[in-house]
Design brief:
The protein is mostly helical. Helices cover 58% and strands 6% of the residues. It contains five helices and two strands, in the order αααββαα. A two-stranded antiparallel ribbon has the order 1-2. Strand 1 (66-69) and strand 2 (73-76) form a beta hairpin. The longest helix has 25 residues, at 81-105. It is elongated. The mean pLDDT is 93.
């Protein structure tokens, strides 16, 4: 499982791990019932603390994306894709609301914001 961590993003590493796994689940790259790497193995692969991967997995369990089977590991849960989609859409709307506020305060046109959004959306990550 490929996860890319950025030490300069300002986002905590456990959150980066959690969000990337969540994205893989929502895109069906990870299927319901699939066993995830152990906390130790994931920490080793990512060269981070086991506490960091433990926090990421616990966050995924709390959000309903993963289940923990004691002594067996963490498994991808059956996720309500529509509910998860709405959750992600709400996050995007909140971020865009902030963008609009900043743009209006600085007299940046909607056209300019749309151009930037188009460029960013088409950019390969």
């Amino acid at each position: 499982m490929e996860i890319i961590i950025s030490n300069s993003s300002g986002v905590p590493i456990y959150e980066q791990i959690k969000e990337q796994i969540k994205g893989k689940i929502l895109s069906n790259e990870l299927q319901a019932g699939e066993l995830l790497p152990s906390i130790r193995n994931l920490a080793k692969d990512l060269r981070c603390s086991v506490i960091t991967t433990k926090n990421a997995y616990e966050g995924l369990v709390n959000d309903g994306y993963v289940t923990n089977v004691p002594s067996k590991g963490f498994y991808v849960a059956e996720v309500n894709k529509e509910l998860a989609y709405e959750e992600q859409l709400n996050k995007i709307e909140a971020l865009l609301d902030s963008v609009v506020d900043i743009a209006k305060m600085n007299n940046i046109s909607k056209k300019t914001i749309n151009e930037v959004l188009d460029i960013l959306y088409e950019e390969e990550k």
